[in-house]
Design brief:
The protein folds into four domains: 2-121, Rossmann fold (3-Layer(aba) Sandwich); 127-135 and 229-374, 3-Layer(aba) Sandwich (Rossmann fold); 143-221, Regulator of K+ conductance, C-terminal domain (Alpha-Beta Plaits), CATH 3.30.70; 387-469, Alpha-Beta Plaits (2-Layer Sandwich). With 470 residues, it is α/β, with parallel strands linked by helices. Helix content is 32%, strand content 24%. The longest helix is centred in the first third of the chain and has 14 residues, at 76-89.
Length: 470
């Protein structure tokens, strides 16, 4: 594959690095000379220092041979115009635009082609959906969901009182009356795929696959019961915070605009319910005024959480959950950590860089959502071959959990799993066939339309795509 990316900011850089590591050919267009020079020194790809809405710049980047064009600059208009230009001049590339302004991204643009843009992705909506999924599942861990909706993967940190500590995995599985699989263990700066004899250590981060009921029972054994949050504090009432609030409350005003209702409908509804208490804190007065009008049933406080005593005055000890979604990832993490010392049961923080998730794990936060990673994963699902349905990154992106469907051209159809020469450190986790979801076994023969979920290293993606597509 050949992919042209416009914009070498954090999302563009992360996307390019991930694709290059998979063995794909990438070209980056960046208007800022300093940024372009820095990216050229760090990535093995073509870098064009020019304006991405210029036809000449696009041609220098090789757009005429590209399979996909992804525009992820900080400016919605630039992204949309660039995609429109590519679509009008070249037939081949799939066009993907990052659009932050809801007036663009949450109207009929998602249903009907506009300027020839094939896909419009809103990073704030994607981040809010990830936060709401975590709330729905008790904010005990990150949650990986799949199309089949039967199985999930959640992460768990092994503590001193954990049922996993110091014991072989096979012993733990024998004492459970339900099936589960530990897909991978993150230990210090490396990972390992466990066998039945693998034993667990304190601070191991393990990724467990099972049904929702099975995972709930494991978390109960770990003294991390499912929590129904009645009193929630939301710090940061910006775009992501507003989307999260839309998913948490049921009292959005009847006279809200049609656009507001469309936005709200795109978010998970299962966790909205009446009687829930929501307290929103933001330091911008005008924003707080708008939030108070939008959510008449919520308490809105205009204050700066960095000021001494503010969080204590909120009476956090009576709160079940804090969600931090300000524009500062450092503030989000530290506010959530401090809130937990005050007695808040659960904490979810929004960060920009995915390496902050590792820091947050060390600080004992329950869930950390990376805005950039959710955006990159959404783009990867579009541009990859092989009918990719879902992509979830693990271990700073070194590992990925991938869900894909098999079509008649796939080279693996008709073969038992044990006879398929998978790349090193690749593990088939489960497959869905019709209405049935099954843990992987060596004697399973893959068939057309099977949905397969596997764990693999990022640099094995290209080899897997060839096997899947045929």
């Amino acid at each position: 594959m050949y992919i042209v990316i416009l914009g070498a900011g954090r999302i563009g850089y992360q996307l390019a690095r991930q694709l290059i590591d998979e063995g794909k050919n990438v070209a980056l267009i960046e208007n800022d000379k300093e940024v372009a020079r820095d990216v050229l020194a760090r990535l093995d790809c073509l870098v064009v220092n020019d304006n991405g809405t210029s036809l000449e710049a696009l041609k220098k980047a090789g757009i005429q041979k590209a399979d996909a064009f992804v525009s992820v600059t900080d400016f919605d208009e630039v992204n949309m115009i660039a995609c429109g230009l590519v679509s009008s001049e070249f037939e081949k590339p799939v066009t993907i635009a990052r659009v932050k302004n809801v007036d663009y991204s949450r109207t009929k643009l998602l249903t009907y082609p506009f300027l020839g843009i094939d896909y419009i992705i809103n990073p704030e909506i994607e981040a809010a959906k990830a936060i709401l999924r975590a709330v729905e599942n008790g904010a005990r861990s990150d949650v990986m969901l799949f199309d089949n909706k039967t199985f999930q993967i959640r992460d768990l940190v092994v503590k001193e009182d954990s049922l996993f500590l110091g014991r072989p995995l096979q012993d733990i599985r024998r004492e459970m009356d339900f099936e589960f699989l530990v897909a991978v263990i993150l230990r210090d700066d490396f990972y390992l795929i466990p066998t039945g004899t693998t034993t667990f250590q304190v601070n191991d981060k393990i990724y467990v696959l099972s049904t929702k009921r099975g995972l709930d029972r494991i978390f109960e054994r770990e003294n991390r019961d499912h929590r129904d949050f009645e009193k929630i504090v939301l710090v940061g009432g910006g775009t992501v915070g507003t989307y999260v609030a839309d998913g948490l409350v049921a009292d959005i005003r009847e006279e809200s605009s049609l656009l507001d209702k469309v936005k709200s409908a795109l978010l998970p509804k299962a966790i909205r319910r009446k009687g829930r208490s929501l307290h929103i804190i933001d330091r911008d007065y005008d924003r707080c005024k708008a939030l108070a009008e939008r959510y008449p049933g919520a308490l809105v406080t205009c204050d700066d959480v960095t000021d001494e005593g503010v969080l204590e005055q909120v009476k956090l000890r009576n709160s079940d959950l804090i969600i931090t979604t300000t524009s500062s990832q450092e503030l989000n993490v530290m506010t959530a950590v401090y809130a937990k010392t005050l007695g808040v049961g659960g904490a979810i923080s929004l960060v920009t860089r995915r390496n902050y998730r590792h820091i947050a794990h060390r600080l004992n936060l329950d869930v950390t959502i990376s805005r950039n990673s959710t955006m990159v994963n959404s783009i990867l699902k579009i541009i990859r071959h092989g009918n990719i349905k879902n992509v979830h990154a693990i271990s700073e992106g070194t590992l990925e959990v991938i869900e894909f469907s098999l079509d008649k051209a796939s080279a693996v159809i008709g073969k038992p799993l044990r006879d398929i020469r998978l790349p090193k450190n690749t593990l088939v986790l489960f497959l869905t066939r019709g209405e049935e979801t099954i843990f992987a076994r060596g004697d399973m023969v893959l068939d057309r339309n099977d949905h397969v979920v596997l764990l693999t290293e990022r640099d094995s993606i290209q080899q897997l795509e060839k096997m899947i597509v045929g």
